[in-house]
Amino acid sequence: MKSIVYYLKEYRVQSILAPLFKMLEALFELFVPVVITSIVDDGIARNDWNMVLRNGGLLFVLAVVGLISSITAQYFAATAASGFGLKLRRELFEHINHLSFSKIDKVGVSTLVTRITNDVNQTQAAVNMVLRLFMRSPFIVFGSMIMAFTVSAKEALIFVVVIPVLFVIVFGILLSTVPLYKRVQGYMDQLLRATGENLTGARVVRAFQMEQKEEEDFFRKNEALVSLQKATGKLSALLNPFTYVVINGGTIFLLWSGAIHVNSGSLTQGQLIALVNYMSQILVELIKLANLIIQVSRAMACYHRIQDVFMIPEEEAENKILDRIALKSKAQPDSDALFQLDHVFFHYEDAKEDALLDISFAVKKGMHVGVIGGTGSGKSTLMNLITGFYRPNKGSIFFEGQDLRESDRSQVLDKIAYVPQKAVLFTGTILSNIRLGKKDASKEEVEEAIRSAQAGEILEKKGIDAEVLAGGRNFSGGQRQRLTIARALVKKPEVLILDDSSSALDYKTDANLRNTIRKKYADTTTFIVSQRIVSIKDADLILVLDEGKLVASGSHEELLKTCQVYQEINASQEKGQKKEASHS
């Protein structure tokens, strides 16, 4: 676990100067009551207005210098805190990007988003406050007591009693509220997660008329959060009245005792005013210190959650541990195969059952492979294993004769273009989105890829520089799918994986797309995952999955004769097509 100091290392100068300038500001504040004492005792009492004006000017100078010191301290503190947040957020983002898909699935995207936004912001704000107040507040408290002793040792004994009582009250309430604040943060996480899921699935919620249920669920979680915050707030609210009672009680006693000594001549009026000022300074700084500690306790909870993410091993480190076990019984690859899976088993994190069971097959270069099966049969999981996004729990996957676990992942992915089930577009333009597949692609190459993906009408209507909103929401589902396919085609990959990525296309467009890929990308090994037999019937090899098992493989004609699962899928789809034809 990296300490907070590690992230402030590049800003050590600012981290030192910020509290030093705050200490300088505090020092000037401690001199203010002394100057006021001189104004009252040496100026007003003796009717020496020159003395009053000189000391008044000194107060103005102290105020200006204190203001400059405060602004300077704030600048250095803000610079250091911003740099801290920048480095922490950057390293956290890099770490998350290097996590395996299985770990991201386990932790949850909403949790990771909360860590990199809210938790980092809370920690950054706490660092800013600590740099400004952590040394200033204790310095003012104990400095006021020391200065009080320089004014009057007898009257300063009141401070010796008041300050410990105040510390007991402040830290007693803090020790009671810190666990509650941690619970509040936990409830806040739950509410944020529920809100995020609700907004993401807004269409689903409305489609199934679940608005009332979701509202009730939100209000229930919100009420739980509010109730806990009220309880915490009531306990925290005791801080001010208790401290004010002690301070005002101390002040009353100070005025009563001071008045007796002023009357006897052993204490001046100015000195009594100075003592009251020091008492007020102690009150203000203790309240600041209490707020600081509350902020720090919240931030530390956030920081520990951030470090929990850092404790998750990155994919390479995790794979090395798994590979030391898996490579002990490694099979020998087929020299003629581009891809070869040998008795592959796989299950997701914390899953009770395997998603894939004993999968074995080989694919030669340039082949067109179809993958079909019912929902949940493991088609997408198989594609994720082939791309190396997940690692098998048992068995081996070979690419070009080398085990994927021993291969350089970046080199493997350079040869593979993957189009996922969900078409994902990013904010920018059509050109910038397609160039994600190939950074240095020319406009001509991009336009060729778009036309190959059967999206030529998008070019004609909108142009290559058309704006793309977040998620591509200004395009239809079919348009998004074709643009994501174009992003893969512009790469001119050795391996193309279409993971049910043409489901929104009509039969004619789907057929034209497959014909174009066969002609223009004849040397490309293509995997087509689909639930429609018509999309894969021309494939050189068809893999039929059922409940995670490879039940059959072969050509369309062979499977119609030998595979019952394939026969049932074909029969149901032919029946559906006949119904559509009769209705039309």
Give the gist of this structure:
The chain is α/β, with parallel strands linked by helices and 584 residues long. Helices cover 66% and strands 10% of the residues. Helix 2 runs parallel beside helix 6.
Q: Care to describe what's here?
A:
The chain has 584 residues and is α/β, with parallel strands linked by helices. The chain has three domains: 4-314, ABC transporter transmembrane region fold; 337-415 and 494-584, 3-Layer(aba) Sandwich (Rossmann fold); 417-492, Rossmann fold (3-Layer(aba) Sandwich), CATH 3.40.50. The protein is built from 21 helices and twelve strands. It has a six-stranded mixed beta sheet, sandwiched between helices. A four-stranded antiparallel beta sheet has the order 2-1-4-5, with helices on one face. Helix 6 packs antiparallel against helix 11 and helix 7 (153-200) runs antiparallel to helix 10. The model has no long low-confidence stretch (mean pLDDT 85).
